[in-house]
Every structure is written in structure tokens, then in C-alpha cells.
Amino acid sequence: MPATKVDDRVVAGQAAYTPLVLKIYDWFVLGFSNRLLWRCPTAALRALYAANVSACHLDVGVGTGYFLDKVRWPAAKPDITLLDLNPNSLDAAATRIGRYAPKALAANVLEPIQAEERFGSVGLCYLLHCLPGSIPEKAVVFDHVLAVMSEDAVLFGATILQGDAPRSRAAQALMNAYNRKGIFSNAQDSFQDLERELNARFGDVKLRRRGAVAIFEARRRQGPRGKRSSTTG
Ligand SMILES: C[S@@+](CC[C@H](N)C(=O)[O-])C[C@H]1O[C@@H](n2cnc3c(N)ncnc32)[C@H](O)[C@@H]1O
Questions:
Q1: 108 CB under 6 A from ligand 1?
Q2: Is the whole-model pTM more than 0.90?
Q3: How many domains would you assign to the chain?
């Protein structure tokens, strides 16, 4: 845990990831929920990692380390840093990808990131919906990762939305239950807010929906024809 006191709502957003929950996480979230509830197959998120990881990668909100384990890295010895507030997640992911000797940072991403390195890629997969507040409030995370991104770096990730995101009754019921417990805090999260906050900070933003999930890729630099933003809402 970080030295500074962490807000109770922030604690709730990471407290669910006990060793037991992490044992069933891949099966329940990445297997069952992604396909049948959120309607965003895990294959789409694996493709997102495959398209974007660099040889110097920061992953924020690491869970079990599933994507870091499965992706093909562009270097034999990628330099990987794991950042998470929950020591169980850090341990699980660090053990799973121990072959790459990752570094681990126990920290709250709502605070500035204490890292000397400048990363070529930053992954934020299924993190934002765990953080309290509205998207404009959570967007401070984008400022924190921007500060440790190299000039050409890419930020990529995915988050489960409410707003007008399509959801079955079962999906809505589970999302409501998670929101009541503070595991999710996405009651106010909309595609439009996410689009606005990314475009306010990045010159090149790609954002699309897959079921109830928004998938994003963002680069600091503008493309050759000026500001590029592609949205598939
Ligand atoms: C839903 S899991 C996502 C795991 C993985 N990225 C995936 O997509 O399968 C969310 C992770 O974010 C972490 N987390 C939640 N709030 C955090 C915070 N404020 N700062 C850093 N990590 C946080 C949790 O501990 C957990 O490991």
C-alpha cells in the first residue's frame, strides 16, 4: 500500500481482488462475463494488447496478468512494470510473468506515478470502471500516465460503461450489484465523456465500442494530417 492515506472508495475498487477471487478471475471475468454479459470477447482485448505493447511497457491495474502472459512481446526481454494498489494482484501478475522479471509498483494510480522510466506503451485494461467518480474525475489517471509516457508512446485500454451502453438484464443486475459494493464505480461513465477526456489530452485518439465496453488507443502526437480522432460509437 502507498504511504499516503487512500480514500475508502478507492480502497473498495481494488479490495475485491483477494487471492481466491484472482484464482477464478480469468474464468469468470475473462471467460464468462466478457462474452455473455459485457459482450466484448476477451479475444478483442488480446488483440488490443497484441497491437500495442512495446518493449518498455507499463501495465496499470494488472489483475492476474492474463494479457501480459498471453501477448507476444516485440522483444525477447521486454522491460515490464506492473502498477497496482492491491498486493495480491501485483503478486499474481508478477509470478505469472516471472519469466520477464517485471518490476512492481504498489501505488494508487489516482496519485502521480513515481517512475523514472519513460514507457513506450501503457495498458489500462478494465481499470477505469473500478475507480470512483465520473470520467472527468477519473481522467486524472490520463495525466499521470502521460507524465511517464515517451514521446511516441501509446496508451491503450478498455473500460465497462453504463450510460447508453447496451446491456442485458443480467448484465445490468450484476453491474448494479458491483456498483453497490464499490467494486465498480461506473454509474456515471459514458462513451461521450471518455471521448472528450481523451481528446483533451491526446492528439491521436481511436475509440470504439464493443458491447458495453469502450476500447481506446491514444497517442500524444498528432498524425501527419493534424489532429486525428476516430470514433466508432
Ligand atoms: C478488473 S481488474 C483488471 C485486471 C486486468 N487488467 C484485466 O483486464 O483483466 C482491476 C485491477 O485494478 C486494480 N486497481 C483498482 N483500483 C486501483 C487504483 N486506484 N490504483 C491502482 N490499481 C487499482 C485492482 O487491484 C485490480 O488488479
A1: yes
A2: yes
A3: 1
- Closest atom of ligand 1 to CA, residue 110: 19
Is 1 within the bounds of a domain?
no
| Domain at 195, CATH number | 3.40.50.150
In a domain, 13, yes or no: yes
pLDDT confidence of residue 225: 53
Q: How do beta strands 56-60 and 149-160 pair?
A: unpaired
Give residue 61 CA to ligand 1 midpoint distance, Å: 3
Biggest CA pair distance of the chain: 50
Whether the predicted pLDDT of 224 surpasses 70: no
Q: How far is the CA of 127 from the centre of ligand 1 (A)?
A: 5
Q: Is residue 3 situated within a structural domain?
A: no
Best residue among 86, 97, 186 to mutate for probing ligand 1, ranked by most atoms within 8 Å of CB: 86
Query: What pLDDT shows up at residue 166?
Result: 73
CA dihedral for 132, 80, 112, 118, sign (positive or negative): negative
Query: Residue 24 carries which DSSP code?
Result: H
Beta-strand ranges (E) seen in 147-222 are 149-160, 204-210, 213-219
Query: For residue 230, how far is its CA from the centre of ligand 1 (angstroms)?
Result: 27
State the average pLDDT over residues 121-140: 97
The rounded mean pLDDT for the chain is 93
Please write the tens of the pLDDT for every residue from 27-46: 999 999 999 999 999 999 99
Atom of ligand 1 nearest to the CA of 86: 25
Ligand 1 binding pocket mutation candidate from 24, 25, 38, 62 (most atoms within 8 A of CB): 62
What H or E segment, with its residue span, contains residue 80? strand 79-84
Query: Domain span at residue 67?
Result: 8-232
